[in-house]
């Protein structure tokens, strides 16, 4: 009985978080943080009745939504406003990976789990873990623990970052830059940005997508570095894991996002015969993101939370505090 109620309620809530969207002049029924909260409460009460649908929404719809956001952004203006954030992104990616590996080694955390958590914190959460996991030969448990840690912190970030931004009186540009660097997954970055303001959302999306491109060089670097890391651990008395075949996942949707920005920047006047087309796509993408956050919350069951060990969680929180505090200081002192 409870299972059937959960299945019905899942679809009812999904419709509620999606409709109506602002482009038709009606108020949004559910904002991004509320969508995530609904998903979390639903998962605690009813579990996860549709895990496959959750995965599709959390990945495919998220990628489509990011591409759709490109139709509301001007390429030239976005690049000009996000230049400083992009420069800091490079330093933060390298810094987090180095600190993460050192902390994981000091705490004697499983090497693959530690490396995946570091990659997820340094770049773009679950997407980076999914891309680097096959390269290091991570098994299901190592992937689950790494993703579980990142998803928990993402859920927390979506709620605490906007209030913290207001507490520190951050501008739209400052908050967008900070959120893109300090929050792991694209979904939570965009959700936090949307909760803070449209300008913050656009800038956060741009910088986050630039950050996500680092998945590609990181994957190639991992192919060279990780076997050496495992060899050193084995020599020091650890156990070297079996090396699997490396498989690199390229985040193609990032390139489509850039293409959408180019199309919006240079063809908006050319499609005047379809007034409001790009604005409609942009508004629809923002509402799709609310549905994505609901799906992410609905997939974060108590079982996933319990599967996360104390040490991986401590490592992830340590890295998160480091990147959050440092990036906040840099943003507040260098960006107006």
What's the arrangement of secondary structure elements?
Elements: H1 2-18, H2 32-46, H3 51-69, H4 75-106, H5 111-122, H6 126-136, H7 140-167, H8 172-182, H9 186-196, H10 198-212, H11 215-235, H12 252-267, H13 277-299, H14 302-307, H15 310-334
Question: Can you give a write-up of this model?
Answer:
The chain is an all-alpha fold and 336 residues long. Helices cover 78% and strands 0% of the residues. It contains 15 helices and no strands. The protein has helices spanning 2-18, 32-46, 51-69, 75-106, 111-122, 126-136, 140-167, 172-182, 186-196, 198-212, 215-235, 252-267, 277-299, 302-307, 310-334. The longest helix is centred in the N-terminal third of the chain and has 32 residues, at 75-106. 47% of the residues are buried. The model is unreliable at 22-27 and 239-246 (pLDDT under 50).
Helical content stands at: over 70%
Tell me about the largest β-sheet.
none
Report the mean per-residue pLDDT as an integer.
Answer: 79
- Count of runs of 4 or more consecutive helical residues: 15
- Structural class category: mainly alpha
Q: Please give the radius of gyration in angstroms.
A: 20 Å
Distance between the first and last residues' Cα = 55 Å
Stretches with pLDDT under 50, minimum 5 residues: 22-27, 239-246
Please report which band the strand proportion falls in: under 5%, 5-15%, 15-25%, 25-35%, 35-45% or over 45%.
under 5%
How many E strands? 0
Tertiary shape:
globular
How would you spell out the order of helices and strands?
A: HHHHHHHHHHHHHHH
